[in-house]
Amino acid sequence: MERILNRYSREITENESQPSSRAMLHGAGFTSADLKKAQVGIASSGYEGNPCNMHLNELAVHIKKGVDEAAMKGLIFNTIGVSDALSMGTTGMRFSLPSRDIIADSIETVVSAQWYDAVIPVMGCDKNMPGAVMAMCRLDRPSIMVYGGTNVSGSYNSKKINILSTLEAYGEKIAGHITEEDFEGIILNACPGAGACGGMYTANTMSAAIEALGLSLPYSSSNPALSSEKINECLSVGKYLYHLLEEDIKPSDILTKKSFENAITLIMTLGGSTNAVLHLIAIARAINIDVKLGDFQRISDTTPLLADLKPSGRFLMEDLHNAGGIPAVMKELMGAGYLHTDCLTVTGKTLGENLSSLPGIDKSRNIMVPFDQPIKASGHLRIMYGNIAPEGSVAKITGKEGEKFEGPARIFNGEFDAIEAVKLGQVKPGEVIVVRYEGPKGGPGMPEMLKVTAAVMGAGLGKSVAIITDGRFSGGTHGFVIGHITPEAFDCGLLALLTDGDIISIDAVSNTIAAKLTDEEILFRKSQWVQPAPKYKNGVLYKYSLTVSNASTGCVTDEFKTENRSAVINSLLLAKDEH
User: Residue 532's CB: how many other CB atoms inside 10 A?
Assistant: First the structure.
């Protein structure tokens, strides 16, 4: 019996009452035979202004070729992207996290409106990938994500460098440790071409997590951007998608609690970005799977950090590719019993079946240490609670920073004030830098603090200060840092009530973060607090601040939650009064 592949598109191609639909498709170059084929939307976040995304439109063409050769009809469309590394340290970074939801909304919109039978997103920078996967989950049609791939490292003065090197060089420059000539030399050579930032930063973290989820082909997350392997992957996607269409295998058939546990286990082993926490929670919510902060801590407690990758380690994704790639890491984990091997993937086979015939890690390259000699015996991501974060926060502790920190607070009502203080040498060893009003609502947009952390590292303070914030940290961050503090300052979390000199205690063993204040003092300060005016009163960030959930629930905007309704009503009343 012949299986129906055009389950959705036949609504407009085989429906007699839709003559205009067929006419439009003929106008777009469809033949009568094409109208009977499955239509596959190829969603590219390609654009010229960013190495992570500048080659994606070319990859989309290769994907289309493979789709057409597999007897389907590939149709390329575009969605947006935001370059985090370009926007970092500016107000432009406030648009980064909101772009994730815009990407999800736009892919869902096009695929739904055009009646595509399947979708293949080809994505580059940090928020592109979780945004695309959220759309795949909402649509729940056969789909495969293609990662655009990582770039190669740069070189300056015979030293391997990458994008993080530029920000740390800035810290070194303001501390007087390097010359202006060397500073410019690092900038000129850090990004030699197309591809996402090379360390285990957010882009590579999320691509690896999505491969572990089973939503991209083996090696997609580690095949370099400008490689024959990446082109061959793009050309092969069509045949795998055809099988998914034949069997009607959808994200809801692939994604389970076990597959999310596989993804979390992998990022703990790799030393991945804190951003994976809120992105994986958001993806899980899009497919109605219960993944919470506690799952990350539970898996972190029993999963060793094994990969010596930047930002805290020595190696880049290009080095991991040469040692066997992400499948090789997962094969090692599988052999040690850390993965659920029965999870279905987009190959149509289980994760265990995919990995069984693939080689393991090349141990001679020393990228992954043995299980009995871990870099850290438990995971580097710690979920912390306490009076500063009663609803949770996320720390990235590799062990190199120590596991406990206590010191007086230095308060900054925003990232830029903190950067300036570091620049002027006003931050002292032993202090806890508090960067507040940078959360999803207060930022708005929950910008990343990489410019702050890189400046601290470059100034030689990386092991002598801690940084806490209701904003986020880039995957390129390392040091004693705690982000995603919930409730955020804008919602009168304790972060908003702290003053200079308050003693803050952070313990990555007991997973606590607390200010040494009495309950009476906290209540008094709360009675004196006045919520600051929103930074934006119209546009994208205004809408985002009204609809976004908190960091501990993934910063999602696709559910109009009870917790947001009063904020929306109050804001509308305020706007009415102002007029």
Answer: 12
Catalytic residue among 99, 312, 378, 474: 474
Q: Are 554 and 449 in contact (CB under 8 A)?
A: no
CA 520 to chain centre: 39
Distances 301 to 260, 306, 505 between C-alpha atoms, Å:
16, 14, 21
Q: How far apart are CA 459 and CA 174, in angstroms?
A: 7
Give how far the C-alpha of residue 383 lies from the chain's centroid of Cα atoms, to the nearest Å: 17
Report which of 262, 233, 231 is spatially closest to residue 345, judged by C-alpha positions: 262
Query: 415-423 and 163-174 helices cross at what angle (nearest 10)?
Result: 50
Q: Phi/psi at 458 (nearest 5 deg)?
A: -65, -30
**Which ranges constitute the DSSP H helices of 377-462?**
415-423, 450-458
Rounded CA separation 186/168 (Å): 10
Local structure of residue 375 (DSSP, 8 states): S
Rounded CA separation 194/207 (Å): 16
d(CA 556, CA 61) in angstroms, rounded, equals 32
The secondary structure of residue 479, as a DSSP letter, is: S
Q: Give the C-alpha separation, 177 to 160, whole Å.
A: 19
pLDDT in tens, the chain (579 residues): 468 999 999 999 999 999 999 999 999 999 999 999 999 999 999 999 999 999 999 999 999 999 999 999 999 999 999 998 889 889 999 999 999 999 999 999 999 999 999 999 999 988 999 999 999 999 999 999 999 999 999 999 999 998 888 878 887 888 888 999 999 999 999 999 999 999 999 999 999 999 999 999 999 999 999 999 999 999 999 999 999 999 999 999 999 999 999 999 999 999 999 999 999 999 999 999 999 999 999 999 999 999 999 988 999 999 999 999 999 999 999 999 999 999 999 999 999 999 999 999 999 999 999 999 999 999 999 999 999 999 999 998 877 777 899 999 999 999 999 989 988 889 999 999 999 999 999 999 999 987 888 788 878 888 899 999 999 987 666 678 999 999 999 999 999 999 999 999 999 999 999 999 999 999 999 999 999 999 999 999 999 999 999 999 999 997 654 445 555 545 544 544 444
Q: Whose CA is closest to 396, among 451, 474, 292?
A: 474
| Partners of 120 in the β-ladder | 42
Using alpha carbons, list the distances in angstroms from residue 326 to 1, 190, 228, 401.
39, 24, 17, 27
Whole-prediction pTM value? 0.94
DSSP class of residue 222 equals: T
Is 393 among the catalytic positions? no
Pair 197, 309: CB distance under 8 Å: no
